[in-house]
UniProtKB/TrEMBL annotation:
One of its GO terms (biological process) is maintenance of Golgi location. It comes from the Eukaryota. Residues 1-54 form the Tubulin binding cofactor C-like domain. It comes from Didymodactylos carnosus. This is Tubulin binding cofactor C-like domain-containing protein. The lineage of its organism: Eukaryota, Metazoa, Spiralia, Gnathifera, Rotifera. InterPro entries: CAP/MinC_C (IPR016098), TBCC1 (IPR039589), Tubulin-bd_cofactor_C_dom (IPR012945). PANTHER family: TBCC DOMAIN-CONTAINING PROTEIN 1 (PTHR16052:SF0).
């Protein structure tokens, strides 16, 4: 049973999500460190094959609307991210960040902070 958890992963297989899991967040692995390319090579991970956004939901299809499965992207532009990031997710993130900045400016302008 897994609830309200985030997973930032690089996986060549689909992440399996069991029936009793809920409120999960999947995102691409987005950590960088000096030996990452070496470690990926040793473990056989390939940056071109990442199925983080294709979870295998193991409950009946008619129950899908009762559960949430959210996929978001968090990244820093100066980090090495070992996997392909779909342009749709980059665009959605940019739009979200602009909305947050706009709201922060409105709060500042109204002196509500």
């Amino acid at each position: 049973q897994c609830r309200s958890s985030s997973f930032h992963i690089l996986t060549p297989t689909r992440p399996a999500v069991q029936l009793n899991c809920s409120n999960l967040l999947f995102a691409p692995y987005n950590t960088s460190y000096i030996k990452l390319p070496e470690h990926m090579k040793k473990t056989g991970l390939c940056k071109d094959l990442n199925l983080w956004n294709k979870p295998l939901i193991t409950y009946p299809a008619h129950m899908f609307n009762k559960h949430s499965c959210t996929i978001i992207l968090r990244k820093s532009r100066d980090c090495f991210i070992p996997c392909f990031i779909p342009i749709e997710y980059e665009n959605a993130l940019d739009k979200r960040q602009k909305s947050i900045s706009l709201l922060a400016n409105e709060i500042t302008d109204a002196q509500l902070n």
